[in-house]
Amino acid sequence: MEAMRTTRTEIPPGTLYMLVLKALARLGPMHGYGIAQYIQQTTEEVLQVEEGSLYPALQRMLTKSWLKAEWRQSENNRRARYYTLTPAGRKQLGAEVEEFERVTAAIRRVIQPA
Predict the structure, then answer these.
(1) For residues 43 and 46, what is the distance between their CA atoms, to the nearest angstrom?
(2) CA distances, 18 to each of 5, 35, 73, 81, 89 (Å)
(3) How many CB atoms sit inside 10 A of residue 98's CB?
(4) Phi and psi at residue 74, in whole multiples of 5°?
């Protein structure tokens, strides 16, 4: 019998932007903790976004104008920065998904049985 996996799988390189952009496209404005929770819950706990990679990625996406941010009160009355997808971010999401599907198809060709 295979043992239950107790460690979390790391997010594959190059997919964090895509996951964050998709979360915001689906759910609208969210704070960083909400984005991380959404990804973790949607992947049934397989993927966990660490703060040390999420917040720098959000900052880079702001710099690239893929997101905009504003400070608001969170559900539990704390001050939180809410991120929203911009038109440029929506366009980038399409490019990120396209590239991910291209790479995934290439990997599938290698690992499929002959």
Answers:
(1) 5
(2) 25, 12, 26, 20, 10
(3) 11
(4) -85, 180
Q: How far, CA to CA in Å, does 112 sit from each of 40, 63, 98, 99, 101? A: 28, 40, 21, 20, 16
In sequence order, which residues have a C-beta less than 8 Å from that of residue 57 and are 6 or more positions away? 16, 17, 20
3-state secondary structure at position 19: helix
Over the stretch 2-28, which tens digit does the pLDDT of each residue have? 445 556 677 887 899 999 999 999 999
- Which H helix or E strand runs over 49? none
Cα-based angle 78, 48, 26 (whole degrees, multiple of 5): 70
Residue type present at position 4: M
Share of residues in the chain with pLDDT > 70 (%): 92
**pTM for the full model?**
0.88
